[in-house]
Specification:
With about 140 residues, this protein is of the alpha+beta class. The chain has one domain. It has four helices and three strands. It has a three-stranded antiparallel sheet. α2 runs antiparallel to α4. The chain is elongated, with a radius of gyration of 19 Å. The two termini are about 15 Å apart.
Amino acid sequence: NRVLKPNGLLILIWNLADNRERPWTKIMWEYVDSFRSKEIPRYETMEWKKIFHNQNLFSSLQHKQFTYKHCVTHDLVINRILSKSFIATLSSEQQKTITDEIQKILENIEEIQGLEEFDLNYFTDVYWCSPLKPSS
């Protein structure tokens, strides 16, 4: 809390795919996540929240969620996937395999066949807290 501006806030933001309305997006993102190392901490486990329990540096964590639609093309989806750090570090050959598989998934989705652009649903989780005043 010493690096925050006086009266500043600690704000944590995560943008995540919202797979609730479209089952095919869940299949796509699960495929992509299968390349993620199991040792890499993940937002979804909520393990990170434990550091805010039983501490006297920050106020209670507050939360707000926002939903939005992102208009994409097949290429934008592929580029988004290739930009993920755990995909970007893979070999060119592995990235090509992923690209080909995602193209197949996208081409077989009846809902978006023939569309140049389509929406992907996302939600943004915003958490914030403020530093507590040190006791004298």
